[in-house]
Amino acid sequence: MKKLAVLVSLALSVCINISAQASYMHEAAEDSEGGGILGVLSLLIFIGVGTLISNLFSNENPKPKSNRYKKNIDGNINLHTEYSCQRPKTEAAEEKSKQILAGNSDKLAEEKRLYRKRVIDTYARETECFGFLGGEILIIKEDGEYHFLDYLHDERHIILRDYIKENIPENWTSKSIRFDWLMFDFYMGVYSDEFPSFNLLEKANVEPNDFLGGKLAAIKAYYSILDGKLHRYPIVHRVDFFMSIGLEETILLHKIIQRPMEAEDWFDMQVMRNRGLKTYDEYRKYRNSAGQWHEEEDGWYDKFYGYLAPTLEEARAVFIRKEGCSYPEASKAVKSIKWEYDG
Asked: Quick one: which of 211, 235, 207, 200 has its CA closest to 221?
């Protein structure tokens, strides 16, 4: 509407100017008798004004833009020719992405395989597996001391544990050892900071292992109870553990921790060995009758061994010979050993 008002005003102005000029020109023509040229000029001006008005009205009502995306009868959109190859290009890009992902997956699998091989080659033969099924710890000797592998946060644990079980069962040292696993697990949870973890694979410095790391941790656990460090844990018998690893390793472990054996433990071990007893339960049953003496008319009797001797002194000597050790002998033997580890 604004354009229309402007056009009307412009047309009126032009008409007035033309009329005025026509009058002026008419008078001038009469004076100069040259009115033909002025008529032609007025006609041209009129035609120009008309053309301008027509163009302005044609711009006032423009034609709607053509829709580049026309629908087919079935409602599907026909894309413009410039987009006609978009779908094939998208499919090609997706296929290329799949190929890239597949290549990355293969590369990752190869990297994992190489890492697993490196871990096995570096540690497996020198790694001790200690504990029960599902709760094993892995131990190596590194930088002159025993290192324990963090089984919660280190992927090397699963790699080595599974490989050792399948290929080096002799490295699973706790299979033939009798010890209180709950006590051991409790101790490791409380005193885990005492045992350093494996060095990083890049800094591995594994030494030939004598596979004493698990037994060393176990003996420390037993003495932590004896010394009252593991509160609220019941008293457990160490002799079962000592007998299962043998007297020589028991002495060696005590030397490593620089602690003399208890004379009582030495005595029990000697008697168990002499009697061929394998477990502390067997020894306890034996002890419930052995050493239970009573006197009859012909002398002294033992509940387990029977008749000993006619006199008490002779009975003691016979009983010691049958058991193979006495408390005084056990105490003397413990004191005679130098409880220091010389490497």
From this structure: 235
